[in-house]
Design a protein that fits this description.
Number of domains: 1
CATH architecture: Alpha-Beta Barrel
CATH superfamily: Aldolase class I
Structural class: alpha/beta
Largest sheet: 8 strands, parallel
Oligomer: single chain
Radius of gyration: 17 Å
CATH class: Alpha Beta
Shape: globular
Strand order of the largest sheet: 7-6-5-4-3-2-1-8
CATH topology: TIM Barrel
Length: 259
């Protein structure tokens, strides 16, 4: 079970799905289904075009609105890009940065991710930094090296104070849509490594406070077991977050501490 000092976060990444009415309806259903006594944080990340509609649908709730990406520039001739101030204007307080699909499909490097993290922080947006290894990297025993490189790259030139609100999401790329799933023990091992690596960068107190979410085929069926791991502080959920009933079950997980 996550440390009592770290508030769990359940995040829904809607990827390139839904038009604005569908997104608003889904957000409203999730808002309505939340237990009023819920202590942990819930985050929704719709596409850029749906941010306004979802922001309106979430009015009066504590649900966090996040963009799925953000540009590293403030403004200018960057066709197709959306700046930190623009996502903030649409109601976002958070931005997902460095998702495996951005790295793999859009060829984003650690240097680009670093620029985006810096731009988010500068604009008061909380970065939800994604890291993770591919199947080839895991099978060749390079998991920890990849995570170390991605973390060092993402936080280069950023002080502990600047990065204090950052959230890290570990997503084993090989467990996304491949039929392969990380066991809770494998996920815990990676999360523990991430925390150890962040301790090297920013010190023990920072590392113990940072929230590390798990992303990689999180479902209603496996969330309880995952959330019972001591270093898993939440989940970054893909497909399952597009179904209100399923996502509400993930949000209201029942994690018993591992014996």
């Amino acid at each position: 079970m996550a440390s009592h000092n770290r508030i769990p976060m359940i995040a829904g990444n809607w990827k390139m799905h839904l038009v604005s009415k569908e997104a608003a309806d889904l957000a409203a259903a999730i808002k309505k289904g939340l237990d009023p006594a819920l202590k942990h944080e819930v985050l929704l990340a719709p596409t850029f075009t749906n941010l306004h509609a979802v922001h309106a649908a979430l009015a009066g709730s504590r649900v966090i609105l996040s963009s799925q990406d953000v540009a590293w520039e403030e403004k200018g001739a960057f066709t197709g890009a959306v700046s930190p101030s623009q996502v903030k204007d649409a109601g976002c307080t958070h931005a997902i940065i460095g998702h495996s699909e951005r790295r793999k499909i859009f060829l984003e490097t650690d240097a680009v991710v670093n620029l985006k993290v810096k731009a988010a922080i500068k604009n008061g947006i909380v970065p939800v930094l994604c890291i993770g290894e591919t199947l080839e990297e895991r099978e060749s025993g390079r998991t920890f090296k990849v995570l170390e490189t991605q973390l060092n790259g993402a936080f280069a030139g950023i002080t502990a104070a600047e990065a204090s609100k950052a959230v890290i999401a570990y997503e084993p790329v090989w467990a996304i849509g491949t039929g392969k799933t990380a066991t809770p023990a494998q996920a815990q091992e990676a999360h523990l490594f991430v925390r150890g690596q962040m301790e090297k960068i920013y010190g023990k107190a920072w590392a113990e406070a940072v929230r590390v979410l798990y992303g990689g085929s999180v479902k209603a069926e496996n969330v309880d077991e995952l959330m019972a791991q001591p270093d898993i502080d939440g989940a970054l959920v893909g497909g399952e977050s597009l179904k209100a009933d399923k996502f509400l079950r993930v949000i209201h997980y029942q994690a018993a501490p591992v014996k």
